[in-house]
């Protein structure tokens, strides 16, 4: 500062330095406060049971209940455990519920000799859980088995949906190769012992690890947590546990027959839809993701460099797509 100006203003250099330091500290504090206010911290996940139609249904819940609810529906042979990494990424912004189906995970598992397991049955119990929790509207994340469960819920209650998030969940024949379609048809119609044994073998330890979780990540197996199959196999220890999943695999062909109903729902209601599909999935192929655009042309489609269990491989990427998608809906 020029000496004459300094003399006229009667400001000492030490005062100027102190003032600059004050400004810097104040700006730093303000910036920290803004970041703290904007930060989205995950909510602690709670692990709960609810009585639904006389059965104990387990579910994971996180986030503030008055906010938008996202219901995460798991696939085969898993449970809500498959969403353990995704839930914290969403729970700071949304109310998140991830149930274990009747017969899966920590939920009650009635004996399959007296209770036949179908996707309609699973849908009834998930819908019953949401009714018990007084959740009136929700967005659905559907993957694998979650698609037939979710679409049955939508057909039963077509006006409850806010948005649909599809991750390797089929609603079109294009998503299944001809051999895969033939397998489900044979599983449903062929009651021979040889066919039963073949389906039962799909629930074995080797099949779960190698043909499910590690199948699509052979070039990078480290991305797949062993917790995933260890958890699933814990709930497939008995013959009854495995028969439950066999019955669902046998019922799966009925989903293919119901695809036209699901597609009609999409055409009629045009739900806001996000599709995040692992393109390396040889079971539920990427053509199944693209097929959705025939009925909901405004759907947002992203093909990920991942496989059937994309939420195990890329939970952060999927969460980013979900947050961006949900933000657009809120505008």
From TrEMBL:
Gene3D superfamilies from the UniProt entry: alpha/beta hydrolase (3.40.50.1820)
UniProt superkingdom: Bacteria
SUPFAM superfamilies xrefs: alpha/beta-Hydrolases
Signal peptide region: none
Keywords carried by this UniProt record: Hydrolase
AB hydrolase-1 domain location: 69-315
Gene Ontology molecular function: any one: hydrolase activity
PANTHER family, sorted: AB HYDROLASE-1 DOMAIN-CONTAINING PROTEIN, HYDROLASE-RELATED
Protein name: Alpha/beta hydrolase
Organism listed in the record: Pseudoalteromonas arctica
